[in-house]
Amino acid sequence: MKPVIALTKGRLEKQFMEFLQERGYDVRPLLNKGRKLQVETDDFFAVFAKGIDVATYVEHGIADIGIVGEDILLECQPDVFDLLPLPFGKCRFAIAGDPTAVNPMRKQRIATKYPNITTKYFRERGKSVDILKLEGSVELAPLLGLADDIVDIVETGSTLKENGLVVKEEMFTLSARCIANRNSLKLKKAILSPLLDSFRIEEAVI
């Protein structure tokens, strides 16, 4: 029996491949998977999904562990065990907007893909704002007057700059996380421990 790992497709997927290679794993089956969504390696089975779906597969025990962005855990709060941070996927949450905009007389409007994170952040600071949930490019909202500012994940800041926006307030930093199904940690400890121990090599320096 091999562990089942759910991987977030895209940027985290590529960074996790490099992470595995550094630890001596043969990732050739993963790199050469083409359009396959399930791949078997010598050490584990891998499934590829969007971030929120990774958390769902882990929560329901389809996957034993998952590699997911910390934003998914904070926003959606899936019922999984948050095992440890990983040394990649680094980014930050920030409030951004038009630096020339005048402070509104009305309640501040914030556009974001992350209403739960945003609500919690402002509530903890005693601020009342109106939150507009968007699914696409939130940078458009202040440009068209839908919102005063946005709350979003920022990596390089290039998208903000290209659209004339600036970071107004740094909120907090994020990283990729290794999550686990609660039952798998108990029932499959023998097969999961070697894999998880190899992931923990960098834990002390994060």
Automatic annotation (TrEMBL):
<feature type="domain" description="ATP phosphoribosyltransferase catalytic">
    <location>
        <begin position="53"/>
        <end position="198"/>
    </location>
</feature>
<comment type="pathway">
    <text>Amino-acid biosynthesis; L-histidine biosynthesis; L-histidine from 5-phospho-alpha-D-ribose 1-diphosphate: step 1/9.</text>
</comment>
<comment type="function">
    <text>Catalyzes the condensation of ATP and 5-phosphoribose 1-diphosphate to form N'-(5'-phosphoribosyl)-ATP (PR-ATP). Has a crucial role in the pathway because the rate of histidine biosynthesis seems to be controlled primarily by regulation of HisG enzymatic activity.</text>
</comment>
<keyword id="KW-0547">Nucleotide-binding</keyword>
<protein>
    <recommendedName>
        <fullName>ATP phosphoribosyltransferase</fullName>
        <ecNumber>2.4.2.17</ecNumber>
    </recommendedName>
</protein>
<dbReference type="InterPro" id="IPR001348">
    <property type="entry name" value="ATP_PRibTrfase_HisG"/>
</dbReference>
<dbReference type="GO" id="GO:0005524">
    <property type="term" value="F:ATP binding"/>
</dbReference>
<comment type="similarity">
    <text>Belongs to the ATP phosphoribosyltransferase family. Short subfamily.</text>
</comment>
<dbReference type="InterPro" id="IPR013820">
    <property type="entry name" value="ATP_PRibTrfase_cat"/>
</dbReference>
<keyword id="KW-0028">Amino-acid biosynthesis</keyword>
<dbReference type="GO" id="GO:0000105">
    <property type="term" value="P:L-histidine biosynthetic process"/>
</dbReference>
<dbReference type="InterPro" id="IPR024893">
    <property type="entry name" value="ATP_PRibTrfase_HisG_short"/>
</dbReference>
<keyword id="KW-0368">Histidine biosynthesis</keyword>
<keyword id="KW-0328">Glycosyltransferase</keyword>
<dbReference type="InterPro" id="IPR018198">
    <property type="entry name" value="ATP_PRibTrfase_CS"/>
</dbReference>
<comment type="subunit">
    <text>Heteromultimer composed of HisG and HisZ subunits.</text>
</comment>
<keyword id="KW-0067">ATP-binding</keyword>
<dbReference type="GO" id="GO:0005737">
    <property type="term" value="C:cytoplasm"/>
</dbReference>
<dbReference type="Pfam" id="PF01634">
    <property type="entry name" value="HisG"/>
</dbReference>
<dbReference type="GO" id="GO:0003879">
    <property type="term" value="F:ATP phosphoribosyltransferase activity"/>
</dbReference>
<keyword id="KW-0963">Cytoplasm</keyword>
<keyword id="KW-0808">Transferase</keyword>
